Amino acid sequence: MLPARGRKSKLNESEIVRVEHLKKYFPVEKGFLERLLTRTRKFVKAVDDVSFSILKGEVFTLAGESGCGKSTTGKLIVRLMPPTSGKIYFNQTDITRLQREQLRIIRRKLQIIFQDPYASLNPRMKIGQAVGHPLEIHGLAKGAEEKQRVNEILQRVGLTPPEQFTNLYPYQISGGQRQRVAMARSLILDPEFIVADEPVSMIDVSLRTTIIDLMLDLRRDLDLTYLFITHDLAIAKYISDRIAIMYLGKIVEMGEKHEVFSNPLHPYTQALMSAIPVPNPERKRTAVELKGEVSSAIDIPRGCRFNPRCPYAEDRCKVEPELTAVKPGHLVACYRTEN
Amino acid sequence: MSDENREKLHLLTVNNLTVEYWARRGRIRAVEDVSFSLDKGETLGVVGESGSGKSTLGLSLIHLVPYPGRIVNGTILLEGQDVLKLGKEKTRDLRGRRISYVFQDPMTSLNPVERIDSHFVELIRTHEPKITKAEAVTRAKKLFKDVGIQPERIDDYPHQLSGGMRQRVMIALALALDPSIVIADEPTTALDVIVQAKILDLLKTLQDRYGMALILITHDLSIVLERSDKIIVMYAGRIVERAPSSTLYAQTLHPYSQGLLKSIPNIELAEQKLTAIGGSPPDLLHPPTACRFWPRCPYVMEICKIKEPPLFETSSDHLVRCYLHGGEKAS
Amino acid sequence: MLSSILPGLSTLAKRGLAGWLIIIGAILVVVIVVMTAISPWIVPYNPTEIPSSPKILAPPSTQHFFGTNDLGQDLFSRVLSGGGVMLQVSILSVIVCLAIGVPLGLFASYAGGAADRVVGLVMDSIYAFPGLVLAIAIAAMLGRGVVNMALSIAVVYIPSYFRVIRSQVLSIKEMSYIEAANAVGAKNRTILTRYILPNIVPSIVVVATVNFADAILTAAGLTFIGLGVSVTIPDWGQDLTSGQRLLTSGAWWAITFPGIMIILLALGFTLMGEGLSELLNPRLEQ
Question: Rounded CA gap, C125 and C141, in Å?
Fold first, then answer.
């Protein structure tokens, strides 16, 4: 079970990652004729002004449906792509515009695990090589020493005996095992912060907890902090300390897990929670009805981006609400919660 | 009442269905000895993970198992008639009209170069050639209303619709000929959770309105517990437990079902301890001898490794394939 | 070496038709290569020497298995030793293609943007030409000889490598394991050599085998119109050319046997290419 969280420190030192006004816009490719005839450029506003901080040692979850920008945010933080604007801080250092050598050094501290265990391992690299390669890249170990560290880390992620796995190719092991290999690869550099992008959604249901529990154990043993990205709120509830709900590129609600789940304030959060299937035949569903569908991220609605679907939309929703604290630690972007 | 008569009472009766695939590396029994029944208006949930055979089972019901798979044994009685013995014409008539199938991936199930209305016209007129194009489109528009799409969208191409809408189009197509049974194969996997809930609610509403039976095939135990009347749990091609949903929830008997239930997070519980099922999914080329689940079972006994347990009936309508609940309990 | 070949063969055979295609193709090629290599020791007559008392245009007999040509040379000896030019040309052209086409394809498609577009345009322009015509044009500029033939064929074929590599690289570029490699700090060079290249080798191999087959036929074509090697070197292409002239005299054997050999060699490579392509693609479907 999750260890007791203890006092939440408000000191800056315990912030391991902070993002400020992060934006990522992808230009929409236009056909030749369209480019000739129109002047305006269209963008997919995948991440549209997101700010939050992650405390050392916590599991911070970004949750939302597909297209909300959660994966993009995760990839921005580990600098897999440059942000359109905004800042990213790691241990109080601005890493937004780091390049080359400096960036490579930082990469050792910030790692990422991907969703698809079948696509995140090089099919032509043996497990041992794949896991040990980061050490070679950073000149940290070679040969026998590399082998030893690979074996150690494979054991840590539960692939024992490690020698049985080092000479195999990814196609020879199962999806769950591949995900563990991916974890081993990101752990071998001794990172402090890991972005886990839907790490279990492509794994059999009955095996998901093994990976999740492994992640929690590793957090305790290796002093890790996680940004956990998922669309599955049930898993989010199980693993998170704090959670932020994203919609169309913005955070609409954020707070301590227990608080947000027991007292969801944003209409979108409420709708999400009521939609989640519960393994109980007796359950009476109080569904929050949402109109229409998620708007496209190219044509974001004016004002509150949720207002076309919101059952409580009013006039003032024509101006986009700010993410404000309703009580300490619980932030919502909705006028209804303002008193 | 004779067995034959009792069988005629059910809308669908499947008996001892076995489906094999011949892969390059050997023979795979994707579905083995599966039997169940379905009544008018009922919802059956078929739940299982990778290798369980649930999708193959679904396809067998409309006799559409793809090569190199073959149905090698069993009967599928729809209103007393064996689906597997129907000739080509009748089988084609069956699909879409008496049993319809909603495929897993709405993205690829619609023809991208044809407008939506053509899909409907083609479907309806194949089965009812006397209907004019205009009549078919009218019926389609009414179905659109049922599934919650604006009727004008019927002129769109599939790529102009979102994932949720495409899935709704698939459902509308499935209902176009007023089938007695709709099979939905992982109807929600490709969708977000809010759309998911809407689609499932929609299916229920349409069921209430049209009285059709629904078979929900999914890996998501939560969905079937919440929405089906009875549930079949499948593992490595076998039924390991079969019961009405409330019974299954109250008394989850098979160790696999128990493990499954204990491994899924329940959002309504404040604190939860989840446990995974140990081991890995079954290798269907070399399945465990005897009980398929024994390598992962916390309660395994000697006999489990020697002889496969049959389905024991613990109460009316509750079957379990496990020696813990019947038969020889050798130590 | 034999002990490692035999288990390899049986694995191939188990793969069904694809494996057999590769085996048969490989056998054809190997037999021809060996035959050409040992030809100096097994030829019954000297293939290049013009005999002093020539038996001109003699039909096949026990003395001359494949008959003689208009210079009295034994065609069997010429066939045995005539594969050399073709093999050299095709091997050389493949080497040039690999040396130029692979890096070009890798860098241009990985870099993307302007580089990719420009190189792509050049490649497409070359590709748009009918292969043989372009080869003829280039060979005419460069002159005769094995090297020049190889170069002209290579120029024609590089765009094919480029296309195949490009489509592979573009799809691999998006895969998570490339992102993962970036995330652990790998340099672009490393990603290209250790992550992308090993995954495109199968398709390169397939293109190379087709390249071999095509090169052989193109070499024959070039020789046919006089852009081949000098007359003294025994060469199936040469014999094909002269044999064509002799057809009117009724000497069917002069053109037939070299022609068959050319076909067999090209067929060998083609079968291997087909088999390889079969092998490598179904696995993706599974």
Answer: 19
Q: Which of A5, A51, A7 is nearest to A249 (CA)?
A: A51
Q: Which amino acid is at A163?
A: E
| Nearest CB to C183; choose among A80, A124, A138 | A80
Task: Provide the β-strand partners of residue A245.
Answer: A63, A253
d(CA C182, CA C192): 11
Rounded to whole angstroms, the Cα distance separating B255 from A214 reads 23
Only one residue has tokens 């059910």, namely B10
Q: Which residues of C touch A121 (CB under 8 A)?
A: 177, 180
Question: Is residue A111 less than 8 Å (CB to CB) from chain C?
Answer: yes
Q: Tens of pLDDT along C105-124?
A: 999 999 888 888 999 999 99
- Cβ contact (<8 Å) for C183 and A104? no
The reply to whether omega before B68 is within 30° of 0 (cis) is: yes
Among candidate residues A219, A273, A196, A233, the one with its CA nearest the CA of residue A5: A219
ipTM of the complex: 0.81
Beta carbons within 8 Å of C3's beta carbon, 6+ residues apart:
none
Q: Which residues are CB-contacts of C89 (< 8 A; sequence separation ≥ 6)?
A: C146, C149, C150, C153, C215, C216, C219
Is the pTM here over 0.90, yes or no?
no
**Maximum Cα interatomic distance, chain C, rounded to a whole number of Å:** 77
With H, G, I as helix, E, B as strand and everything else as coil, classify residue B2.
Answer: coil
Residue with tokens 């009967």: B75
Least Cα distance to B72 among B16, B19, B13, B14 occurs for B19
Q: What angle do CA B124, B126, B129 make, to 5 degrees?
A: 85
In whole angstroms, give the CA distance from residue B53 to residue B57: 6
pLDDT, residue A332, reads 92
Q: How many residues does chain A have?
A: 339
> Taking the CB of residue A202, how many other CB atoms lie within 10 A of it?
17
* Interchain CB contact of A75 with C (< 8 Å): yes
Closest partner residue to A114 (CB to CB) among C180, C184, C185 is C180
Q: Could you say which DSSP state residue B75 is in?
A: E
Q: How far apart are CA C125 and CA C120, in angstroms?
A: 9
Percentage above 70 pLDDT, chain C: 93
Q: Specify the 3-state DSSP secondary structure of B274.
A: coil
> Strand A85-90 vs strand A15-27: parallel, antiparallel, or unpaired?
antiparallel
What is the distance, to the nearest Å, from the Cα of residue A148 to the centroid of all Cα atoms in its chain? Answer: 31
A 10 A CB-CB count for A7 gives 5
Token pair recorded at residue C57: 């245009």
Q: Count CA atoms closer than 13 A to A163's CA, side-chain side.
A: 0
pLDDT for A124-182, tens place per residue? 899 999 999 999 998 888 889 999 999 999 999 989 889 999 999 998 888 889 999 99
Strand partners, A94: A89
* Contact status of B164 with chain A (Cβ, < 8 Å): yes
Shortest CA gap A188–chain B (Å): 25
Angle between helices C146-173 and C131-142 (to 10 degrees): 130
At B73, is the secondary structure helix, strand, or coil? strand
Mean pLDDT across B170-184: 88
- Which residues of A are less than 8 Å from C179 in CB distance? 75, 80, 112, 114, 120
Q: How far apart are CA B201 and CA B191, in angstroms?
A: 14
Please return the burial class of A42, using the count of CB atoms within 10 Å of its CB with bins 0-12, 13-18 and 19+: middle
Closest of A232, A233, A163, A224 to residue A195, by C-alpha: A224
Q: Which of A104, A108, A120 sits opposite C180 (nearest CB)?
A: A120
The residues near C71 (Cβ < 8 Å, ≥ 6 apart) are C50, C54, C56
Amino acid identity, residue C230?
S
Give the span between the Cα atoms of B262 and B255, in whole angstroms.
Answer: 10
For helices C236-246 and C197-224, give the axis angle rounded to 10 degrees.
30
Residue B236 backbone phi and psi in degrees, to 5: 50, 40
Tell me the sheet residues that pair with B73: B18
